[in-house]
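Q: What structure does this chain adopt?
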Amino acid sequence: MSYITRTMNLFIVEDSVLIQNRLVRFIEEIPGMHVIGVSGDIDTAYDSVINSDTDAMILDLQLGDKNGLQLLKDVKQNKPEVKIVILTNHSTEDNRVHAMRAGADGFLDKSTDFDQIQNFLYDWESPNASKQVN
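A:
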């Protein structure tokens, strides 16, 4: 059994309000996890993540007419310790390869892998979390 003894701060970047709400409810039910911000806008998300104690980020690839890959690259360049999982409906092999090359720590399909988010979060080491396994 694993558990996190300190809070992991998570930022969600998703433009669908329905998915935002589902993610927040899902994450807030996981012990040791705290959603510190939600944004559907790339520029706002970047500023918020860079200027906060974000440990991990859930990132959609398609955000309106913009692509989340640039945000992924920018965050990894300026705050490489932030763990980032892509959660997308556009889970083609090409998108997966591009995301992983850009620095993604995980890649999940919204329609089939949603419940695996918790596993990623528990497996990640973060500056504000200590993981213990029994």
